[in-house]
Design goal:
- This protein starts with 12 loop residues before the first strand and ends with a strand.
- It has one domain.
- It is mainly beta and 214 residues long.
- 7% of the residues lie in helices and 58% in strands.
- Strands 8-7-6-5-4-3-2-1-14-13-12-11-10-9 form a 14-stranded antiparallel sheet, covered by helices on one side.
- The protein is built from 1 helix and 14 strands, in the order ββββββββαββββββ.
Length: 214
């Protein structure tokens, strides 16, 4: 079941990315930059990111199961969509709709998911094989995100060529698919993130810089 993994969270870091988009029959085109700001003191954390997954914020604590979100925010234009996780982990509250869903051990939001995946690799590299299942609550619902562990690939980045393990989300037909490339040599942090749409278009961000927070 999701939540069964050993997790050691990565050190705080600020990751900068170059964004590109590609549509069927066209060559990739530059589309600006992206950023993932990960802050933690080992007890609490904060994530701010702006990229292919949108403009996201996550905050909470760190526990035995890794990252424990308390509040997640997705900003869409003027709309601010808030998801709250209650203190005992038994409920997820979707403030925009007033709905709620059961919580679970190891549950994440779309931003914290990326760092939780890194923490699974840090906790025990042998866990990153076959598949990884994590319950993820976005701004509307909670469901299991399943990732198939693929081959290790060499990724050209702003730090040179980096070997990274590709995780490919198993998405339902007609749903977007998330692919994440995690680098064991860089704390299992994501050096490439790609969102593929049902129409065949993709939005990709590739690491250009990795620095400690200031």
């Amino acid at each position: 079941m999701p939540g069964r993994y050993r997790v050691r969270i990565p050190d705080a870091a600020v990751l900068a990315y170059a964004r590109s988009v590609e549509r069927p029959g066209m060559v990739p085109a530059a589309a600006g930059t992206a950023r993932l700001d990960w802050r933690t003191d080992g007890r609490q954390y904060r994530i701010d990111m702006d990229g292919v997954l949108g403009r996201l914020h996550s905050e909470g604590t760190v526990g035995d199961a890794g990252i424990v979100p308390r509040r997640a925010v997705e900003t869409r234009g003027r709309a601010v969509l808030v998801t709250e996780f209650d203190d005992d982990g038994n409920r997820v509250l979707f403030r925009a709709s007033g709905r709620e869903a059961p919580g679970s051990v190891g549950i994440q939001d779309p931003a914290s998911l990326l760092l939780q995946l890194a923490g699974i690799g840090l906790g025990e590299p042998d866990q990153v094989q076959d598949r990884i299942d994590v319950v993820v609550a976005d701004s509307a619902q909670a469901r299991v995100a399943r990732f198939q562990v693929m081959e290790t690939e060499d990724i050209d980045t702003g730090l040179g060529t980096i070997a990274a393990v590709r995780l490919a989300q198993v998405a339902a037909p007609g749903q977007p698919r998330l692919d994440v490339w995690l680098s064991p040599g860089h704390g299992w942090l994501p050096v490439r993130i790609r969102l593929s749409s049902p129409d065949g278009s993709t939005a990709t961000e590739t690491l250009t810089a990795l620095d400690p927070p200031r």
